[in-house]
Write a structure and sequence with these properties.
With about 375 residues, the protein is an alpha+beta fold. It folds into four domains: about 140 residues, Beta Polymerase, domain 2 (2-Layer Sandwich); about 90 residues, Orthogonal Bundle (Hydrophobic Seed Protein); about 90 residues; about 55 residues, Orthogonal Bundle (Serum Albumin, Chain A, Domain 1). It is about 50% helix and about 10% strand. The protein is built from 19 helices and eleven strands. The strands form three sheets. Strands 3-4-5-2-1-8-9 form a seven-stranded mixed beta sheet. A two-stranded antiparallel sheet has the order 6-7. A hairpin with a 5-residue loop joins strand 8 and strand 9. Helix 12 packs across helix 15 and helix 15 packs antiparallel against helix 16. The longest helix is centred in the last third of the chain and has 16 residues. It is elongated. The chain starts with a helix and ends with a helix. About 35% of the residues are buried. The structure holds adenosine-5'-triphosphate (ATP) and magnesium ion.
């Protein structure tokens, strides 16, 4: 488990050099909740170039005043106190303005539970009333939620992400602002939306998060996912990310809206699996041959979660392992032999014949050996 020991040393070095510095954000929150700490953020009044002089540092977000510092085999994101500049399209701040005080810096952060500070002695400073929200398990926007979500609409999804991660309730005021401003999510780059959504899907309290998406109607802002989210929120067992998307697109008539910035491979996978799941249940050897084990397993799990069939994962794997042939390349009669036997030139008929042979083998009508295939060829060639 990650500790704050090295971060405390980094704070001491900054202080010894005359700067203010605190641990801030998720690390403080998770430390107070006795949860695993992932990444550690530090906020300081030292400017990026001043931080870089003291440590082995890489400018990772220099536009936003952030450098990544490497110290004793750990890395820390060190950001200079800032207030965010004007926003455009609910996206990134257009420019960064450095702030004089740490109080200004915490007030620009998203939620009270993310606005706590910790010094090198692990003493907590709370300028946003975050401690009491941690104790009562509340996600509450810092300041006016309408203002905060208008500045950066992704914060609405972040509220739901922290709910999925921590199981906290979102306060009434913050929830109502999400409902009222949900349209603004449409102006956020889909890359950011997808990133945040996938984070939500991987956390423990997903069911609670999906229910919030429904009550705030945020799910209607997620193209093609509305029906799926409504269905999945009723289940006891939550699906993994791929199964989640495939259920959604299956219930969306097999359509994957092009707005989602999936990779081509991912998109193709969801599209084919959703179509397959809608086409039939209880896949057989032929399906396995045609679509491969991965897509069949996915489509079959989706049909199971949609209560269209029983759980067939092990059976499918067993059937796949025992397929008499897995590719036309495995045919024991080669195209060259087929041409010689029939005295025909290469052409479309070859491929067709191979497919026919594979089918016959999969259907256990013939065996995959030279003799049987030669006989089959002579009988069926036109
Ligand atoms: P996680 O456990 O997911 O890492 P985190 O709280 O560390 O949670 P990050 O996304 O790593 O979240 O961001 C670090 C901190 O930066 C947050 O705690 C918050 O104070 C601030 N922050 C991040 N994104 C925003 C945003 N869009 N608006 C305002 N503050 C933000
Ligand atoms: Mg973090």
């Amino acid at each position: 488990m990650k500790t704050l020991n090295n971060a405390q040393l980094v704070l001491r070095i900054l202080k010894k050099n005359g700067y203010e510095a605190y641990i801030v954000g998720g690390a403080v929150r998770d430390q107070l909740l006795k949860r695993n700490i992932s990444d550690i953020d530090i906020t300081t009044n030292a400017k990026p170039y001043q931080v870089s002089k003291l440590f082995d540092a890489k400018p990772t977000g220099i536009k936003y005043g952030t450098v990544t510092v490497f110290f004793r085999k750990e890395s820390f994101e060190i950001t200079t106190y800032r207030i965010d500049g004007p926003y455009q399209d609910s996206r990134h701040p257009d420019q960064v303005t450095f702030a004089q005080t740490v109080i200004e810096d915490v007030k620009r952060r998203d939620f009270t539970i993310n606005g706590l500070l910790m010094d090198e002695e692990l003493k907590v400073y709370d300028y946003v009333d975050g401690k009491s929200d941690i104790q009562s398990k509340f996600i509450r926007a810092i300041g006016d939620p309408y203002l905060r979500f208008s500045e950066d609409a992704i914060r609405m999804l972040r509220a739901i992400y922290f709910q999925s991660k921590l199981g906290f309730q979102i306060t009434k005021e913050t929830r109502e602002a999400i409902y009222d401003l949900r349209d603004k999510l449409q102006s956020v780059a889909m890359e950011r939306v997808l990133l945040e959504l996938v984070k939500i899907l991987k956390e423990k309290h997903l069911k609670l998060a999906l229910k919030t998406m429904i009550t705030t109607e945020v799910h209607k802002m997620l193209p093609g996912l509305e029906k799926g989210i409504e269905y999945i929120a009723t289940l006891d067992e939550m699906p993994f990310v791929d199964v989640f998307f495939t259920i959604c697109f299956t219930l969306n008539k097999g359509i994957v809206p092009s707005k989602w910035p999936f990779s081509n491979k991912q998109k193709h996978r969801y599209l084919t699996a959703a179509k397959l799941a809608n086409k039939k249940t209880e896949f057989n050897g032929l399906d396995l041959y045609e679509y491969g084990i991965d897509l069949c397993l996915l489509a079959s799990r989706v049909n199971y979660m949609l209560k269209r069939e029983r759980l067939m994962q092990n059976e499918l794997m067993e059937t796949y392992k025992n397929l008499p042939i897995q590719s036309e390349l495995d045919l024991k009669l080669k195209p060259y032999d087929m041409m010689e036997i029939t005295n025909k030139k290469a052409g479309a008929w070859l491929k067709e014949m191979q497919n026919q042979m594979v089918l016959a083998i999969l259907n256990k009508e013939i065996e995959n050996n030279q003799e049987a295939l030669r006989e089959y060829l002579i009988k069926h060639v036109k």
